Amino acid sequence: MHSTATLICSLGHAATTDELLGLGVTPSLLRTAIQHGTIVRAARGVYLCSHADRDQWNAATAHSRISCLSALRRARVWAGLDRSLHLQLPAHTGGSRPGRDRSGQPIRFHWANPRFQGATQRSWLVSPMEAVWQAIHCLDEEHAIACLESAVHEGFLTIDQVRTLCGQAPARLRGGIRELEFTAGSGMETVVRRRLRHVGYSVVAQVSVAGIGDEDLVVEDCVAIETDGEKWHGADRFHADRIRDLKTEALGRRSIRLTHDQIFYEWETTLAAIARIVTDAQRGRSRRFGRILTRLDDPL
Ligand SMILES: [Zn+2]
Ligand SMILES: [Zn+2]
């Protein structure tokens, strides 16, 4: 039989007494593992192995599950800007709960019985459907829509599962749901695509360009916009990204790259810059077409 610590590892580094008893761990084996320091009892009936992270410790001590935005972040699904820990407790659970953990991280509690159970649900983590369901209630419209698209892109939910959630989503999300398209490679891309369309630009997502691959967004058919997320654009991507930018420019299309902060904290300035670049690109294109038409009109 596997060691108690290995069994806890197999359950995601946290387990309840019931789960462990169900796997054949006896109370005496549990005591021995604690004495040897291979596992810890974080709270009554909850055990962690040495790999458990801070969120799992907080969930265990609060007898709750990691849910909502925090469950999404673990799966690299877009979860907006709120970095607090979101934990779910069964509805009607009594007792007061701290608003922060020992290190000062804010904690938001949701009292709700799971609406969507799933095979991947754990004693310490809600199912993917439950996590996204909670998140679209916690997030504003912009981030909720980005979260739904990202959940599909990251393989966290299928399009059919997202459709199920959309059918029961709050009324405030209906407009955004009609605009859903599962082209975005990141939450930031969804946000930029929607914001630009809402101010009247024609924006096409994931345009396939020979020799370059897919471009995140193409505005008015003349400016390519890439959104630099932490995931895809680390230091090792720097050189590859620059090669790609040069190839795009060589095809006569302006190429710009937006960072997280430019999108979320400096949007007014960013939008003004995009507007200027698009206008310049359109003028350049009309001048080129003008010259071609003039040449065509020239008598032979
Ligand atoms: Zn482990
Ligand atoms: Zn939440």
List key phrases describing it.
single chain, 300 residues, alpha+beta, Endonuclease, Chain A, 3 domains, 4-stranded mixed beta sheet, 3-stranded antiparallel beta sheet, 13 helices, binds zinc ion, Restrct_endonuc-II-like, DUF559 domain-containing protein
Folded structure, characterized:
By secondary structure, the protein is an alpha+beta fold. The chain folds into three domains: 1-52; 63-172, no CATH class; 187-293, VSR Endonuclease (Endonuclease, Chain A), CATH 3.40.960.10. The protein contains 13 helices and ten strands. It has helices spanning 4-10, 17-22, 27-35, 54-61, 68-74, 128-138, 141-153, 159-167, 174-178, 187-198, 238-250, 260-264, 267-297, and strands at 14-16, 39-43, 46-49, 65-66, 85-89, 107-111, 203-209, 213-219, 223-228, 254-259. The strands form three sheets. Strands 7-8-9-10 form a four-stranded mixed beta sheet, sandwiched between helices. The protein has a three-stranded antiparallel beta sheet with strand order 1-3-2. The chain has a three-stranded mixed beta sheet with strand order 4-5-6. Strand 2 and strand 3 form a beta hairpin. Helix 5 (68-74) crosses helix 6, helix 6 (128-138) packs antiparallel against helix 7 and helix 7 packs across helix 10 (187-198). The model has no long low-confidence stretch (mean pLDDT 89). It binds zinc ion (2 copies). InterPro entries: Restrct_endonuc-II-like. This is DUF559 domain-containing protein.
Write the layout of secondary structure elements.
Elements lengths: L3 H7 L3 E3 H6 L4 H9 L3 E5 L2 E4 L4 H8 L3 E2 L1 H7 L10 E5 L17 E5 L16 H11 L2 H13 L5 H9 L6 H5 L8 H12 L4 E7 L3 E7 L3 E6 L9 H13 L3 E6 H5 L2 H31 L3
Bound molecules: zinc ion (2 copies).
InterPro entries: Restrct_endonuc-II-like (IPR011335)
Protein name: DUF559 domain-containing protein
